[in-house]
Amino acid sequence: MIRRILFILSLISLLAGCRTGQTSDGRPERMDQPDAADAYFAMKRTSDGTPSNVLYSRARAQMEIMPRYATEGDRTLPAHSARVVTNDVDTGSVGPWTSLGPGNIGGRTRALLIDPNNPEVMYAGATSGGVWKTIDAGAHWSPIGDELANLAVNSMAFDPSNSLVIYAGTGEGYFREDVRGTALPIRGNGIFATRDGGTSWMQLPGTDGPDFYWVNKLAVSPHDSQRIYAATRSGVWRSLDRGATWTNALPVTVKGGCLDLAFRADTGGDYLFASCGVFEQATVYRNTHAEGSESWVSVLSEPGMSRTSLAIAPSNPNVIYALAASNSPGPGSNFNQGLLALFRSDASGDPGSWSARVRNTDSDRLATLLLTNPISALEAECSANGQDSYVTMGWHCNVVAVDPTNPDRVWAAGVDLFRSDDGGRTWGVASYWWASPGAAGFVHADQHAIVFHPGYDGNANQTLFATNDGGIFRTDNANSAVAKGSAGACAPTNTFVHWVSLDHGYRATQFYHGAVSPDGTSFLGGAQDNSTLIGSIAAGPESWQMAWGGDGGYVAIDPTNPQVLYAEAQFGAIAKSTNGGAEFKSATRTLNDGGFLFVTPFLIDPNQHDRLWTGGLRLWRSDNAAAIWTSASQSLINASVSAIAVALGRPGRVIAGTNAGDILRNDQATTATGTTAWSMVRPRDGYVSSLTFDPTNADVAYATYAGFGGTHVWRSDSGGASWTPLDGSGTGALPDIPAHSVAVDPTRPARLYLGTDLGIFVTLDGGAHWSVENSGFTNVITEVVVIGQGARGPAVYAFTHGRGAWRAELTAAGRRRAAQ
Questions:
Q1: Does residue 544 have a pLDDT over 50?
Q2: 593 near 572, Cβ under 8 Å?
Q3: How far apart are CA 70 and CA 687, in angstroms?
Q4: pLDDT at 166 over 50
Q5: Tens of pLDDT, residues 433-467
Q6: What count of other Cβ atoms lies within 10 Å of the Cβ of residue 820?
Q7: Would you put residue 42 in left (φ > 0), alpha (ψ -120 to 50) or beta?
Q8: Rounded CA separation 530/519 (Å)
Q9: How far apart are CA 533 and CA 536, in angstroms?
Q10: Confidence (pLDDT) at 384
């Protein structure tokens, strides 16, 4: 019997707690909160108001003059030394770093290009993992363009006259704004171009400013490849000279800016549609000669219209579709950011020519769920004990595409994929995100792009691709029967459209945390959009498994029994497995705290395997392996716990950080209660992203801060009572970038590895001087670095937000390193 996993999301409050439990018929729930993830990402990276792309640019310039450290060879090199890089596409090795995967579970992917001259060649854009390329139709992928100043690739476009020329736009612009009106991430840094199929890249001039922080869509004129269009947060920008200069052709101030472009290629001029607006009134504009001075005309703008995606029928360009989300509550308030309507024009998009083929008020319930999670909305019909829950996602995942051979066959997708064969009037389900991975109907949730094979003819070639929060999928029978009627959403076997994953070496997973088994043979990681994942050396990087639902967070492995695993979903939903991850059960009994962060810290006491710590508005302790939790501190004021550490050899010594910058300390923490006041210091304001004790000295601890500005790494020689800055000096000073994690080499305690927003830094003198990790590790967000057992001795592990998990041996081949 296929396990059905429900997808529950609250779009009302970013900080509303939620839990992973069970549905009414005993099936485990699954939750995904991309808006809360965005808010969490932004909260960590506070600044003085200086744009982050400016700060990152300064940081990269500073990194160029810093010394470089080669993990392979254990030596420090002068600045500008040739990087020690080898790249093996099949194994994922980069210098001494070896990818642990996942190679079979991708990350959020919003762009896919297929070379029209050689369809075996494809390019994918991962939202925090950069550009990836395959030359064998998805059998293997490798990252290209790691020299990009920003890996947040959100959009891509070919030069129609030369498929070796590719443009990549950075910054993911589909988000809410927080209560201060501050735009949430993931912020980009302009548009980049390659003219050799991805071997080398350059940033287009003038695209490093605020108008290009979020490049939502790119289009190149089929009439003149000198003309490039970019839909950004401030409007539609146009270049007439291959990106050398830019003009704002359609300025807008609506929230979200312009989000989509659609080109009609059969006319002499640049006949272009633009869709602008999300979370407030959206409008579709048209310009029949966008290359010139002709004005843009509003052609579609219905009250309550939110993010709207566009598609023109290639076989009849007079036909254009618009898939619109709703800003206004629908019947019973079920459709806010769900479907408003699927519109169609048969008159080239002329004003007044648009008709709604389906609305959220239609009697065909399945057709109203194009931008809603269908299985949760139809749970009462699909399960005798079920209760409907409307999970609307039109702001986050919203895409429409038209069959190249048939203007009446149209695809639409939000959480799942749908198809209509009658011009958008009736719909059937074509994919099921909750099916077992590998099942014929399974496609990961939250669709972002639908792309037809260049040779698609609707008969002999029915190949279609979809990208989503789990990577890239393909079907070779796109025109097979889909599942219609409300009952069609109830079982994956109801559709005859079959899918396969192309996540083969596509290591774009966005980890928040990770842990390694005591023998170094298995791994556990919590990932955005992809829950808690389990991998192992024996199974290999292509065989990771999803183990617990929701957006993954912190994880832990019992050091005395690796069969005992701990995981969490967002907002403190901790779970426990006693059988190696085959089954997890909630472990939050008596854990009652309304202040858990989206990613909630928890850990196992290294001195006692059945003692665990976590925190929200207060510290919590379990002395019986998470069977019951008890409060262990007074409530915090205007802050939540963001990091925890326990001293090895001193179980009573616990320190905890907050998202306001405080560091709490208690030397008798094992007996603390809900009335216990912990001592507190604040080395600086900001988000305490990690706390780490030196495993050889319980008086020495390290703290990292994730905000811009100020000192990022601190050291305490008093067990956390007082702190001194540790950002280094001279050319060995750390750049001003968010820092996330420190790992202390137990064989050489003065050697520290630091994970940051721009990769890994190393110090050999306890932080007096820092070096850039020189062995090919790219400038990806590195959330966790940890020392664990490797293949031949100690190894350093890195869990990244966009490139999966990695390991580098600290012991040279053929020998074991003696303690130093």
A1: yes
A2: yes
A3: 30
A4: yes
A5: 999 999 999 999 999 999 999 999 999 999 999 99
A6: 9
A7: alpha
A8: 25
A9: 10
A10: 77
